[in-house]
Amino acid sequence: KRTSPFQQWAKITADVTIESEEEKAQSTVDRALVQRAAAAPRPVDPALVLQGGPSPEPEGVQWFRVVSLNGLVKVRRYRQLKAGAIAFLQVGEIVEATEVQGGWAQLAGHERDKRDISPDCESWVLIDGSQQNWGVLLEPYVPRWWQVVHEPRVAIRKKADLEDKEAPAIEWLQAGEIFEAADFVGGWVALSAEERELRGISKCCGSWVLLDGNMKAKGLGRLIKAIPPPGQEVLIGPYQ
Q1: Given phi > 0 = left and psi -120 to 50 = alpha, else beta, which region is 24?
Q2: 3-class DSSP state of 54
């Protein structure tokens, strides 16, 4: 079917208009997230946000925020200052560690992967460099904001249990979506009260998102990651 030049022009214009409306909607969402992140979080009501939660268990997982006053922080091959740098962390980054030993934090596997650190290398970061006049490099951090990294989506469940038939998915988070959490318990993240309200989750339901599918169910892989507050994002350089 042939189309006139005018029809072709009109179709292109319509497509551009639709795209700009989508961008406008996304911009509105982004601004709302930035405003929420800038405000103090609501007080946590455990009876509401932690209902249906798992039993606390040793995780071996901790988060840190990079707070160095001297710029980039080195990720080293082993736990000694003489070890060469194999990657760098930017100030403001939120990083996950699976082990803390002797004042050093060992980066989690997915942190290593996104920095192309070889499997035959360890990945240690000094926490406090005060003895070297570097000041504190990393500070403990409780993540409030998370982003979905699993394609195409992850479930929000009524209970923090993959085996319980009474713990169905009550809502879904799409890949790339950012959400606010109230707590992290036993490998699960609980949505904040405001996040629950925005998604219309009933007060009689829990709202839990699994952190890592490899921990609870084989083959799912990493589902979500901790991120800096919206509006405070950090660009990761080419050597990280």
Answers
A1: alpha
A2: coil
- Low pLDDT (below 70) residues in the chain: 1-29, 57-60, 215-218, 235-240
Pairing of strands 62-66, 138-140: antiparallel
Predicted TM-score (pTM) of this structure? 0.77
CB 178 within 8 A of CB 147: yes
Residue 31 and residue 218: Cα distance in Å, rounded?
37
Structure tokens at 131: 């003895």
How many whole angstroms separate alpha carbon 130 and alpha carbon 66? 14
- Given this model, what pLDDT does residue 28 score? 64
Kind of pairing, strands 224-227 and 145-148? antiparallel
What does the DSSP 8-state code read for residue 80? S
